[in-house]
TrEMBL record, chain A:
It comes from the Bacteria. This is Uncharacterized protein.
TrEMBL record, chain B:
Residues 24-91, 127-175 form the RNA polymerase sigma-70 region domain. It comes from Candidatus Wolfebacteria bacterium GW2011_GWE2_44_13. This is AdsA-like protein sigma factor. GO terms for molecular function: DNA binding; sigma factor activity. Keywords: DNA-binding, Sigma factor, Transcription, Transcription regulation. Transmembrane segments: none annotated. NCBIfam families: sigma70-ECF. It holds the Pfam family Sigma70_r2. GO terms for biological process: DNA-templated transcription initiation. Belongs to the sigma-70 factor family. ECF subfamily. PANTHER family: RNA POLYMERASE ECF-TYPE SIGMA FACTO (PTHR43133), RNA POLYMERASE SIGMA-70 FACTOR (PTHR43133:SF57). InterPro entries: RNA_pol_sigma-70-like, RNA_pol_sigma-70_dom, RNA_pol_sigma70_r2, RNA_pol_sigma70_r4, RNA_pol_sigma_r2, RNA_pol_sigma_r3/r4-like, WH-like_DNA-bd_sf. Gene3D superfamilies: 1.10.1740.10, Winged helix-like DNA-binding domain superfamily/Winged helix DNA-binding domain.
Length: 180, 182
């Protein structure tokens, strides 16, 4: 059986092309010009470049499309989960915290200045203004517990009978300066 | 391997010598035609494809580099690609049973012998057509063209051992198909 098959296969070698076709084909072939090697290389280079370029463009379109679809139509693209809006929100909170801290810092500094001035005043005229001193001695606790808006400088102004004393007038001036 | 004479012919053809390429055409066109014909089973189509195989080879001779492979391996590779392109572009396929028997040359002495030969050839061709492309290539190259496994390995760019295995499977499958045919 196998030998029969092999014999038949070998007999297929008898298949030959038509002689008229062969002559015609040969003539046509030899009459056609050969493409110069440089031209072929240039053509191959451009073909490869075109394929590469198309591939790159395809990848860019694919990635862009995927990102767009993901951001636009994805069920996960909820407003609350949007990274940009979250960042913006966080920045806003950050800046408001900074403003509050600046305010606290400012108020703290002004309190410190007040206390310093009061201490200076006490050093200048400890005897001349006993009433004012007494009030001022209890003042730091009051200043620390009250907000700048509610703590008025009037609290510290000396309104005793001895307000005509130069030292007391000086204290009043300083306190007014601080209030300004 | 290329003999010296063929090497010098190829070099002349690379240089654009049409007559040198004509010699290569004379040497190889019959086997390439047979290879194509057994795969497409239509004379005109086989002629057309074979012509394009040689035209392609001639137009690209300028870039041909001798890598120690026979020149026929280049032609077989082009022919395989052309046949694939042919089947890719062609939507309708011809039934091998409808082929004109006159396409196969008759070399038998008596009418009876001739008829028997025609029958055998048609049967084998039908069976070959049912094999997958790789097996078809190997059957035609090994048993019709009588190329060595190493030559087929170079053409199909596969190891020689793989070719031997594929050859064994191909002939086994062909035998099974011939047994199935009426």
């Amino acid at each position: 059986m196998e030998n029969d098959i092999l014999t038949t296969l070998r007999s297929l070698k008898q298949i030959t092309p038509d002689s008229a076709y062969t002559k015609h084909s040969r003539m046509l072939l030899l009459a056609s010009p050969q493409v110069p090697a440089t031209e072929q290389r240039v053509s191959t280079f451009f073909r490869l470049s075109a394929i590469l370029g198309a591939g790159v463009i395809g990848i860019v379109i694919l990635l862009g499309g995927t990102t767009y679809i993901n951001e636009t139509y994805s069920p996960l693209a909820l407003e609350g989960l949007n990274q940009r809006s979250l960042t913006a929100e966080a920045d806003e909170i950050n800046s408001s915290i900074e403003i509050t801290l600046e305010t606290i810092d400012y108020l703290d500094t002004s309190n410190q200045m007040t206390l310093t001035k009061i201490a200076e005043i006490q050093n200048i005229a400890p005897v001349a203004a006993p009433a004012a001193s007494l009030r001022l001695m209890s003042a730091p606790a009051e200043v620390a517990t009250t907000t700048p808006e509610t703590a008025s400088v009037d609290t510290f102004l000396i309104d005793s009978d001895s307000a005509e004393v130069p030292a007391e007038r000086q204290i009043n001036d300083i306190l007014e300066q601080i209030a300004q | 391997m290329l003999d010296d004479e063929e090497k010098s012919i190829i070099e002349r053809a690379i240089g654009g010598d049409a007559l040198a390429f004509g010699l290569l055409y004379d040497k190889y066109h019959e086997q390439i035609y047979r290879f194509v014909y057994l795969k497409v089973s239509h004379r005109e189509e086989a002629e057309d494809i074979t012509h394009h195989v040689f035209l392609n080879a001639w137009q690209n001779m300028g870039t041909y580099r001798d890598k120690g492979f026979p020149f026929s391996s280049l032609l077989y590779q082009i022919a395989r690609n052309k046949v694939i392109d042919h089947y890719r572009t062609k939507k309708t396929t011809l039934d091998i049973e409808d082929l004109n028997e006159a396409e196969i040359p008759r070399h038998e002495s008596t009418v009876e012998d001739s008829l028997h030969f025609q029958f055998q050839v048609t049967t084998v061709k039908t069976a070959i057509k049912q094999l997958k492309q790789e097996y078809q290539d190997i059957i035609i190259m090994r048993y019709v063209e009588e190329l060595t496994p190493s030559e087929i390995a170079r053409i199909l760019k596969k190891p020689e051992t793989t070719i031997r295995v594929l050859q064994h499977r191909a002939i086994k499958q062909l035998k099974a198909l011939l047994n199935e045919l009426p």
